[in-house]
């Protein structure tokens, strides 16, 4: 089954560096826009396309722009996988608006794409990379309770552990796809 794993978290929580560790990419190196990363885990293909979240590449909470970005990532995976099952891991940013949106989270840009992906037939799983001292933590925690029960505690410079926990989550996800 084709599966999308959303690695959710706020600013500076380590989404990018956790994915770099998972895909064995240098932490200091920069990737090309929409660069495809590939890894084989237990004989299955794992992909990431761009380490930027679709939400940070659009204006605050413009759902249609987020969906277009996601579609481009899926197309790259479809080509690379040649129709085989895969997991696409995508960073999914939870951001506070600015100006008139200050104090609001981009909740629609998290929940609507998630439901849209499910309606397209993808299995969707989410992981919350949680930073104890994140701005608006209580609001983010409430949003993430709607999305997932899987939490990885984020700590600066502990990206190896975070990547290992994400890898374990993916292994369990593959097993549940088969059973």
Task: Describe what this molecule looks like in 3D.
Strand 5 (123-131), helix 4 and strand 6 (151-154) form a beta-alpha-beta unit. The chain has 179 residues and is of the alpha/beta class. It has a single domain, classed as Rossmann fold. The termini are close together. The protein has helices at residues 15-22, 63-81, 108-119, 137-147, 159-178; strands at residues 3-9, 36-41, 44-49, 86-93, 123-131, 151-154. Strands 2-3-4-1-5-6 form a 6-stranded mixed beta sheet, with helices on both faces. The longest helix is centred in the C-terminal third of the chain and has 20 residues, at 159-178. Helix 1 crosses helix 5. It is globular, with a radius of gyration of 15 Å.
Brief rundown of the structure:
The protein is α/β, with parallel strands linked by helices and 179 residues long. 39% of the residues lie in helices and 22% in strands. The protein has a single domain (3-178), classed as Rossmann fold.
Overview features:
single chain, 179 residues, alpha/beta, Rossmann fold, 39% helix
Shape: globular
**Number of separate strands:** 6
Beta-strand portion reads: 15-25%
End-to-end CA span: 12 Å
Describe the strand arrangement of the main beta sheet, using strand numbers: 2-3-4-1-5-6
Radius of gyration: 15 Å
CATH topology: Rossmann fold
Contiguous runs where pLDDT drops below 50 for at least 5 residues:
none
Question: What CATH architecture do you see?
Answer: 3-Layer(aba) Sandwich
Number of domains: 1
Structural class, from helix and strand content? Answer: alpha/beta
Helical residue percent band: 25-40%
């Amino acid at each position: 089954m084709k599966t999308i794993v959303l690695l959710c978290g706020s600013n500076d929580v380590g989404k990018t560096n956790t994915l770099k560790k998972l895909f064995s990419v240098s932490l200091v190196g920069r990737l090309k826009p929409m660069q495809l990363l590939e890894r084989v885990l237990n004989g299955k293909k794992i992909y990431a396309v761009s380490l930027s979240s679709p939400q940070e590449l659009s204006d605050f909470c413009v759902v249609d722009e987020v969906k277009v970005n996601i579609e481009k990532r899926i197309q790259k995976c479809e080509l690379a996988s040649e129709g085989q099952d895969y997991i696409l891991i995508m960073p999914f940013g939870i951001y506070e608006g600015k100006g008139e949106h200050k104090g609001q989270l981009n909740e629609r840009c998290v929940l609507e794409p998630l439901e849209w992906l499910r309606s397209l037939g993808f299995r969707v799983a989410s992981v919350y990379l949680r930073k104890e001292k994140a701005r608006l933590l209580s609001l983010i925690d409430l949003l993430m309770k709607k999305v997932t029960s899987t939490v990885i505690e984020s700590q600066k410079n502990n990206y190896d552990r975070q990547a290992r926990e994400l890898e374990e989550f993916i292994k369990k996800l593959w097993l549940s796809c088969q059973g």
